[in-house]
Amino acid sequence: MYSKILVPIDLSDVGHGKEIFRIAEKLLEPGGTITVLNVVEDIPGYVAAELPDAVVKDLSANAHTALEEATYGAGGNVKLEVRRGSPASAIVAAAEQLEVDLIIIASHSPGLADYFLGSTASRVVRHAKCPVLVDR
């Protein structure tokens, strides 16, 4: 059982995110905390310059709303957090700042690009200072 669990959710695959959130609920000890995290990747400046300011600002708000929907009906102490930046780096940084006991992250079947660059899940596994549970 774990007292602080970090569950990063990719909003392009919310269904899998809901599954790993349910796993976290089962592994959480009574009185523990689950932090559900989404990382909004920075938009390159040349793209952001062409978008209305409201679109760029709304990304974080929309992500928070999507996390609320993904965790609807959750019992216990659930915190929602949205960060900006590179997903793997932001997840590892959040785990360290929140002093979590476990990260539960979803993974997909790797494509050719993942073998050369590494997926977000594999980067988190390599750099996290706490245990990481990867669910496929």
Structural features, described:
The chain has 136 residues and is of the alpha/beta class. It has a single domain (2-105), classed as 3-Layer(aba) Sandwich (Rossmann fold), CATH 3.40.50. Helices cover 46% and strands 27% of the residues. It has helices at 14-27, 45-48, 53-70, 87-98, 112-117, 120-127, and strands at residues 2-8, 28-40, 77-84, 102-106, 132-135. A five-stranded parallel sheet has the order 3-2-1-4-5, with helices on both faces. It is globular and about 50 Å long. The protein starts with a strand and ends with a strand. The model has no long low-confidence stretch (mean pLDDT 88).
Total strands: the figure is 5
Distance between the termini: 21 Å
CATH architecture: 3-Layer(aba) Sandwich
State the order of secondary-structure elements, H for helix, E for strand.
EHEHHEHEHHE
SS-derived structural category:
alpha/beta
CATH superfamily: HUPs
Largest sheet: 5 strands, parallel
